[in-house]
Design brief:
Residues 154-277 form the UspA domain. There is one protein chain. 40% of the residues lie in helices and 25% in strands. It folds into two domains: 4-143, Rossmann fold (3-Layer(aba) Sandwich), CATH 3.40.50.620; 155-278, Rossmann fold, CATH 3.40.50. With 279 residues, it is an alpha/beta fold. It starts with a strand and ends with a strand.
Length: 279
């Protein structure tokens, strides 16, 4: 069971929907909902498009941030109050990714929304979510921007390749997979290897799932030729009517900027069901 569920607050269009989904998940697990408002502030004065922003403008920005702070807490308590879950609220000043990474380490999972290109503010940039995804040390449950979220995790698609990231995802998803009714284990482009080795690895995978009280996996393989791994994952989720994808987040930090792998970016851009990313 999940004990503490964090949700990202920034008053974007998807925020209320995100908080409601997180609150329902908290209710299902008898968990505490922790709202994290990460305030973005550049140290004044700063340059914008070649011009220094005046103190007056900075004062207006600070006032707007204070108003957003109050509004986000009120919205969190209003929406969460509909489910009766215990609520905590956290905030901070500085870079949003640093605040989110710090606060979510005291929680089991962070609920976020799919990046929205129509809202290009600092807290909506894919680079911020990438930084948190790769740097927080906790799984991120990302919700799609469209579609009804009737259930999350009743029928889960687990992406498995035996590598570190997928192993981390398989373990981090335990509180959700233990409550699932069905689990589909997807292997894409499996390597050619001796039959004895393949059978041993398959037996170990099934034994691990059984030890964690996961549903008996329905094992499938797919060939990504012509469509790519990301689209292969999305197609498999649709074909098997899954309401959750569990996968490792692949990426690295380059020049202090988080860079996601191609498959992770594809899923973030085109997801149609919630995705639990782990790194």
């Amino acid at each position: 069971m999940l004990g503490r569920i964090a949700v990202h607050l920034d008053l974007d269009k998807a925020c209320r929907r995100r908080v409601r989904a997180a609150a329902l998940l908290a209710a299902a697990h008898d968990a505490t909902l922790v709202g994290i408002h990460a305030s973005f502030r550049r140290p004044p004065p700063y340059v914008y498009k070649g011009f220094f922003v005046s103190d007056d403008v900075n004062d207006l920005l600070r006032q707007k941030q204070r108003e957003d702070l109050v509004a986000s807490e009120a919205m969190l308590r209003e929406v969460a109050g509909e489910t009766g879950v215990a609520v905590q609220w956290r905030s901070g000043e500085g870079l949003p990714e640093e605040i989110l990474c710090e606060q979510v380490r005291y929680c089991d999972v962070l609920v976020t929304s799919q990046p929205n290109g129509d809202e290009p503010g600092p807290t909506q940039m894919p680079s911020l979510l990438a930084s948190v995804m790769l740097g927080a040390g906790r799984p991120m449950l990302m919700l799609p921007s469209v579609g009804e979220l009737v259930t999350i995790g009743r029928r889960a698609l687990v992406c498995w390749d035996g590598q570190r990231e997928s192993a981390r995802a398989l373990a981090d998803a335990a509180p959700l997979l233990q409550e699932a009714t069905d689990m589909v284990a997807l292997r894409i482009d499996p390597p050619n290897e001796p039959e004895a080795i393949a059978q041993t690895r398959r037996a170990d995978f099934l034994a691990y799932c059984a030890s964690k009280r996961y549903p008996i996996p329905q094992e499938i393989t797919r060939d990504s030729s012509g469509i790519g791994i990301g689209n292969c994952i999305l197609n498999a989720a649709a074909d098997h009517d899954c309401d959750l994808i569990v996968m490792g987040a692949y990426g690295h930090s380059r020049l202090q900027q988080a860079m996601l792998g191609g498959t992770t970016r594809t899923i973030m851009e085109s997801m149609t069901v919630p995705v639990l990313f782990a790194h």
